[in-house]
Amino acid sequence: MAEEPEITPQQIDIFRRCTFARRIFASYPSLWAKKPVDGEWHISKPYTGEPFDPEEYEPREGGWDHEHCDVCWSTVVDGMSYWPNVDPDAGQVDLCEACYPWVMALLGVEPNSGGEHP
After folding, report:
1. Which residues of 50-73 are buried (b: 16+ CB within 10 A; e: fewer)?
2. With b meaning 16 or more CB within 10 Å and e meaning fewer, what string describes 1-19?
3. Which of 104, 110, 86, 91 is CA-nearest to residue 22?
4. pLDDT confidence tier of residue 67, bands split at 50, 70 and 90
5. In which element (H, E) is residue 58 found?
6. What is the separation of C-alpha 51 from the centre of its chain, rounded to a whole number of angstroms?
7. Domain boundaries, the chain
8. How confident is the model at residue 6, as a pLDDT?
9. Rounded Cα–Cα distance for residues 54 and 34 (Å)
10. pLDDT band at residue 115, thresholds of 50, 70 and 90?
11. Which residues, 6 or more positions from 40, have their beta carbon under 8 angstroms from its beta carbon?
12. pLDDT, tens digit (0-9, with 9 covering 90-100), for 8-27
């Protein structure tokens, strides 16, 4: 990271509620909205097998092909390691390898290099 992005107090509060676990990203299915937004953009979301309306969405194998770091917005793609939040109650939060130790330091927590981190 050439320049550290700004982290807001609201982000710090969200990060405190997260349980981060180091993972290797691999593409997975998505649901792709059949109807475009503003005539050109299609909304997609991760698909994990939940029921959906086939009139509104179409499943796409491998359609969820990246994540973004919630701090620096860098792209995480197949084969890259990153730190997603694994606590469903805290929401979807992802940190790249560069931002994770920085965020942990801001939280006053010793970062680990492997498994889950509360």
Report:
1. eeeeeeebeeeeebbeebebbbbe
2. eeeeeebeeebeeebeebe
3. 86
4. very high
5. strand 57-64
6. 22
7. 6-20+67-108, 28-64
8. 87
9. 9
10. low
11. none
12. 999 999 999 999 999 999 99
Residue 69 tokens read as: 């770091």
List the beta strands (DSSP E) in 4-56: 20-21, 23-24, 28-33, 44-46
DSSP 104: H
Question: How far, rounded to the nearest angstrom, does the alpha carbon of residue 28 sit from its chain's CA centroid?
Answer: 13
DSSP 8-state class, residue 5: P
Using one digit for the tens of pLDDT, what is the confidence trace for 74-114?
Answer: 999 999 999 999 998 999 999 999 999 999 999 998 776 55
Tokens of 96: 């790249």
Residue type, 85: N
